[in-house]
Design brief:
The protein is an alpha/beta fold. The chain folds into two domains: 160 residues, Rossmann fold (3-Layer(aba) Sandwich); 121 residues, Orthogonal Bundle (N-(1-d-carboxylethyl)-l-norvaline Dehydrogenase, domain 2), CATH 1.10.1040.10. The chain contains 13 helices and eight strands. Strands 3-2-1-4-5-6-7-8 form an eight-stranded mixed β-sheet, with helices on both faces.
Length: 310
């Protein structure tokens, strides 16, 4: 809890990540003003003690620092420059902390739009799943104006376990693309290893514990391994359909740099296969089900009527 009453903070986009950040800020003693187009997200925020704002512009007028967490380019453009937007707020001197995973060209556009209004935009992407946000196991990749990052550190610290100042605006996104490149591959590798263990007749809980304690571990094995073993992907910490946006961004990032990404490309196909198999609303751990089906085992999915491998 801060020693004195801090300035209010705003959050636009109260989904899994933005809503989680808002709840941690509230628990740390901040007054939080929030806005989301979805009534359900607003209701959860208000139940946690947040203050309702009527628009992104309203949030910016109330709060010196505004955090935004948005699912798409369309939503981002509306919040930055549409009707009732931050740019239309007339709130010069504000700092906007942009945490979404979006094409860098979009963030550079937003930086210019807001700078013309006297508003500073920071590129501060987040590394971690929705489940990790719940437990404050999030890393912030901050980039942009150094003084503005310093000003926002208490708020960033309220919902994360580590903040990295990565320098020039855009470096936060670049590092996030690299981090998600690894997440994409490690998630598939974890799923493949657990399918292999299942077909070998091993106790998967014992395998997860033993491998997680050894050189073969990864955060994705530790975070998503239990979900894969249960075969229940419904409590999505990253929805598969949402993650497709990230896959496309990383592909474009590598293509623009003429960098071959063969492991990433092979892994991305399994996410697309999961989508085609009707798992759009499931967690990205559902690639485990795709691999299990490829191996002839349909019994890994909770509630399935498909027979297991004989």
């Amino acid at each position: 809890m801060p020693e004195h009453q801090p300035e209010p903070v705003g959050v636009v986009g109260l989904g899994m990540m933005g809503g989680g950040a808002a709840r941690h800020a509230l628990a740390s003693g901040y007054q939080v003003h929030g806005y989301d187009v979805l009534d359900t997200a607003m209701e959860r925020f208000l139940e946690a003690g947040g203050q309702r704002a009527q628009s992104p512009a309203d949030v910016a007028r109330c709060c010196p620092v505004v955090l935004i967490s948005l699912p798409s380019v369309g939503a981002f453009r509306d919040v930055i420059g549409g009707a009732g937007s931050i740019a239309a707020s007339g709130a010069a001197g504000r700092v906007v902390v942009e945490t979404s995973t979006l094409p860098l060209a979009e963030k550079e556009w937003a930086q210019r739009v807001l700078a013309d209004k006297g508003i500073t935009l920071l590129d501060c992407t987040l590394s971690g799943t929705g489940g990790q946000m719940r437990t404050k196991d999030i890393v912030v990749y901050a980039s942009g104006d150094t003084a503005a990052i310093k000003r926002c550190r208490p708020i960033l610290d309220a919902f994360s376990r580590k903040v990295y100042d990565l320098g020039s605006f855009g470096n936060g996104s670049r590092v996030k693309f690299i981090a998600n490149h690894l997440v994409t591959i490690h998630n598939v590798a974890a799923a493949e290893a657990l399918v292999l263990a299942k077909l070998a007749g091993l106790d998967l809980d014992a395998v997860l514990q033993a491998v997680s304690d050894g050189a073969g571990t990864s955060r994705m094995l530790e975070v998503r391994g239990p979900m894969m073993i249960r075969g229940d992907f419904s409590d999505a910490t990253m929805r598969l359909d949402t993650y497709q946006k990230d896959l496309d961004i990383i592909s474009g990032f590598g293509r623009n740099l003429h960098c071959p990404l063969p492991l990433f490309a092979a892994s991305a196909e399994l996410y697309r296969a999961a989508l085609s198999q009707g798992m759009a609303a499931q967690d990205a751990a559902s690639v485990f089900a795709v691999l299990a089906r490829m191996a002839g085992d349909g019994s890994v999915i909770a509630g399935t009527d498909q027979p297991g491998r004989g």
